[in-house]
């Protein structure tokens, strides 16, 4: 009986939190699920927005330690809001990809860069054993999008700043942008997308192949 009351109190608290934190209903549904899933040893967390959420990472990487913590539409603010759940298990690795939705909704490139750095630093502070990998943002293809983002130069700028910052602060930067862009342009290669902003299955296979050595390394 006591255990049941504790569970009900926890669920009640989660409901109140989700209704009052200023994030979308879909964000809160997913975040509340992540809060309730069990922590395990040596987790490898994939953390980000819809690009991360869309990947079946455990299967793509053939690794049972991999957990997907992506939420469609997420932003740097949303990631910071739920970092406690991510670091609670002291994961072995975190692969972070975030920022495009911030840019798309009007956040400055400087704010996006600073927030990503803050996320990485907070993970290191809360879970010192965790190795943090910061992935570059991908290009987009406005010619295929119903709602053009038109933040090409900002994406490139943030990626470059992150690469330099990681080198100076002992974080691992994974450059993905050049693998998916049409050479000589800012455009996401159409062979990798059907809407200009999200990946097809083949693109996920390519992405996973790039990440596999980082996932496997000690």
Textual characterization of the structure:
With 218 residues, the chain is an alpha/beta fold. It has helices at residues 2-20, 25-36, 50-53, 57-61, 76-81, 83-87, 100-104, 109-126, 152-169, 177-180, 201-216; strands at residues 44-48, 66-70, 93-97, 131-135, 172-174. It has a five-stranded parallel β-sheet with strand order 2-1-3-4-5. The longest helix has 19 residues, at 2-20.
Largest sheet: 5 strands, parallel
Strand order of the largest sheet: 2-1-3-4-5
Beta-strand share of residues: 5-15%
Envelope shape: globular
The share of residues in helices is 40-55%
In round numbers, the mean pLDDT is: 92
- Helices and strands: which structural class? alpha/beta
The separation of the N and C termini measures 44 Å
Overall number of strands: 5
Order of helices and strands: HHEHHEHHEHHEHEHH
Low-pLDDT ranges = 3-10, 14-18
Radius of gyration: 18 Å
Counting H and I runs of at least 4 residues, what is the number of helices? 11
Question: What does the secondary structure layout of this molecule look like, with pairings?
Answer:
Blueprint (H helix, E strand, L loop, with lengths): L1 H19 L4 H12 L7 E5 L1 H4 L3 H5 L4 E5 L5 H6 L1 H5 L5 E5 L2 H5 L4 H18 L4 E5 L16 H18 L2 E3 L2 H4 L20 H16 L2
Parallel strand pairs: 1-2, 1-3, 3-4, 4-5
Helix pairs in contact: 1-2, 8-9
């Amino acid at each position: 009986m006591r255990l049941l009351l504790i569970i009900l109190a926890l669920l009640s608290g989660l409901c109140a939190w989700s209704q009052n934190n200023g994030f979308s209903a879909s964000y809160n549904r997913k975040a509340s699920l992540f809060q309730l899933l069990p922590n395990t040893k040596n987790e490898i967390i994939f953390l980000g927005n819809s690009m991360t959420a869309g990947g079946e990472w455990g299967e793509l990487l053939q690794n049972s330690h991999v957990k997907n913590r992506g939420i469609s539409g997420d932003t740097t603010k949303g990631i910071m809001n739920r970092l406690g759940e991510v670091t609670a298990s002291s994961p072995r690795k975190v692969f972070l990809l975030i920022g495009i939705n911030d840019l798309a909704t009007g956040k400055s490139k400087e704010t996006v860069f600073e927030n990503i750095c803050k996320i990485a630093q907070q993970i290191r502070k809360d879970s010192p054993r965790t190795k943090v990998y910061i992935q570059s943002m991908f290009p987009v293809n406005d010619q295929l999008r119903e709602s053009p983002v038109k933040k090409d130069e900002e994406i490139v700028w943030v990626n470059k700043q992150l690469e330099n910052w990681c080198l100076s602060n002992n974080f691992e930067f994974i450059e993905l942008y050049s693998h998916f862009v049409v050479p000589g342009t800012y455009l996401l290669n159409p062979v990798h997308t059907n809407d200009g902003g999200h990946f097809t299955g083949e693109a996920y296979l390519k992405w996973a192949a790039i990440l596999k050595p980082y996932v496997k390394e000690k």
